[in-house]
Write a structure and sequence with these properties.
- The protein has 13 helices and 15 strands.
- The chain is of the alpha/beta class and 436 residues long.
- It folds into 2 domains: 96 residues, Urease, subunit C, domain 1, CATH 2.30.40.10; 300 residues, Metal-dependent hydrolases (TIM Barrel), CATH 3.20.20.140.
- The strands form 3 sheets. It has a 7-stranded mixed sheet, with no helix packed on it.
- A hairpin with a 2-residue loop joins strand 14 and strand 15.
- Helix 2 crosses helix 3, helix 5 packs across helix 6 and helix 6 runs parallel beside helix 7.
- The chain is globular and about 65 Å long.
- The N and C termini lie far apart (58 Å).
């Protein structure tokens, strides 16, 4: 009897966490990619005429195309007119959040529909070349369910690392509903308002129990929540430490939603692993992030859409300056953090704009002062490091997962070619091929 219980524990105890990505045994699905060129993201160089041999979902050999005669009779994928690079990683997405594009009334949609829509958005994201996402905030564990559905091959989508519901305080970002809008007081409230170290700790434990891969805590107010001030700090350092300590005991990481400088500094001092947004960061917060090796995930695309493309009326009303100046200041802060040496990971806040449009942020990052190679690294090697999967993905190397995409053109001269991905392979399986 004891052995039976142990076996059940080992099975069900692992199925919830996406670190165990291959929930089914991989079949021998050997493939060989013949690429005209390959971007070595580690060295920052392009290698021409490459063969990448894939078996059982992993890269087992990288060879010269001059050796392709040795592989006659094998399944060779001809990308000789393409450049291959690692699958891209978006570290700030919301796949189970409907796009704020005016096509769906998000306040009238049943919560169950969020997970169903997530299957559509997941496919769009994968088709855009993003083979992995860190999903930071899903309604009622819809992101956990979507992650497991993808891992079990029920639906198509990127590899997901999920936080479940964000931890926020009463009146904080995401704590929707008030006496004027009681219909937004869903039960349980998706914003999970909690106050004090005891409540924060209990919610952190509940989230971990329910299978999340990381925790997200709202260290400041945010755009999109009525009466929430984006730049104002929310939780105290000790409250956030309660969540950080629970995460560390279980070997997972903590992301902090933080717009204002005070909240950013509080979150860093509490021990979080990443700052999300960082809209109003200052020199002291930049120095603290560098000193504590905290990653910064600045969503230039979401800011651009919200402020300049007239997609998000709530965000425009929340700021009393001209929208162009607010965006320009954000881009200046982005460049300042980059030039000072903050670890910058790629994240877009997908759902503020249409899902699948994520790669348009690369151009904005380069325009803000980041080198093309560093922008690509932010969505490959650096993003993998932030999540903690750098040993298995983030670069095309022997022994790593076969997460490979292909584009036409020189992406180091024109970063916008990443907006037109022709080929997508995740975990050795092909999900998109070039149109003939």
């Amino acid at each position: 009897m004891t052995r039976i219980f142990l076996a059940l524990f080992l099975f069900y105890g692992t199925i919830g966490h996406s670190q165990n990505v291959a929930l089914k045994p991989r079949q021998n699905d050997g493939k060989i990619i013949w690429a005209g060129s390959m971007l070595d993201v580690t060295k920052g160089t392009i290698i021409t005429d490459v063969l990448v041999v894939v078996e059982n979902g992993a890269i087992i050999k990288i060879d010269s195309a001059s050796q392709k005669d040795r592989y006659k009779g094998e399944d060779i994928i001809d990308l000789s007119d393409h450049t291959i690079l690692p699958g891209l990683i978006d570290c700030h997405s919301h796949l189970t959040n409907p796009s704020f594009d005016g096509t769906i009334d998000v306040y009238e949609l049943p919560i169950a529909s969020y997970g169903i829509l997530g299957t559509v958005y997941a496919k769009q994201t994968l088709q855009a070349g993003f083979t992995t996402v860190r999903d930071v905030g899903g309604y009622l564990y819809s992101d956990v369910a979507l992650r497991d559905a993808i891992n079990n091959d029920w639906v198509v989508g990127p590899r997901m690392y999920v936080s479940g519901k964000a931890i926020t305080m009463t009146g904080g970002h995401g704590a929707w509903g008030n006496w004027m809008a009681p219909h937004l007081e869903l039960e349980p409230n998706p914003g999970n308002p909690v106050d004090g170290e005891v409540e924060v700790r209990k919610l952190a434990r509940t989230l971990i129990k329910n299978g999340v891969d990381l925790l997200k805590i709202n260290a400041t107010g945010g755009f999109g929540t009525a009466n929430s001030i984006p730049g104002a700090a929310s939780f105290t350092i000790d409250e956030m430490k309660a969540a950080v300590n629970e995460a560390r005991k279980r070997g997972i990481r903590v992301a902090a939603h933080a717009h204002g400088a005070d909240g950013i500094k509080n979150a860093v001092r509490a021990g979080v692993n990443s700052i999300e947004h960082g809209t109003f960061l200052d020199q002291e917060s930049i120095d603290l992030m560098i000193e504590n090796e905290v990653y910064l995930v600045m969503d230039l695309l979401a800011a651009h859409v919200s402020l300049l493309e007239n997609k998000d009326d709530i965000s425009k009303k929340a700021i009393d300056k001209g929208n162009q100046k607010v965006y320009d200041d954000y881009a200046i802060n982005f460049n300042e953090a980059y030039q000072k040496g903050v670890k910058m990971a790629f994240g877009t806040d997908a759902s503020i704009f249409e899902h699948g449009r994520n790669a348009k942020q690369f151009h904005l990052m380069v325009k803000a002062g980041m080198k093309e190679m560093d922008a690509i690294r932010s969505a490959t090697t650096v993003a993998a490091e932030l999540i903690g999967i750098e040993k298995t993905t983030g670069s095309i190397e022997e022994g790593k997962w076969a997460d490979i995409i292909a584009v036409k053109g020189n992406l180091l001269n024109d970063i916008t070619v990443l907006e037109k991905v022709d080929f997508v392979m995740k975990d050795g399986k092909v999900y998109k091929t070039p149109k003939k």
